[in-house]
Amino acid sequence: MMSEHQCLILDPGCFRCDLNRDEMESDRLDHVRVAKLLRRVASDPRRRPGTRSLLLDLATEATEHAQAIQDALSGSNTRSVALGDDGGLKGSQIGSDAAPGLEAR
Question: Region (Disordered) spans which residues (predicted)?
Fold first, then answer.
């Protein structure tokens, strides 16, 4: 049975970190796709203003999460960041200008 992954940062020499990096990149691309789709749907003139506003807020949040994942992958704006059991980011500290809603677990 494989032992629990112990790296506290994304270590370029660690096989498990490489797998985590691939998962994070996939998640980042998913967030980008969702943001684009939400913006496209919001641009439909048949949408009510309240619905349009909500869709644009969700698109902005998805974009911010994609940027936070990109920051974690590049090593900027984070310290002690790793993937949690659910695939989300966790860490002892995350930079102050990380995306809202991205908190240490």
Answer: 71-105
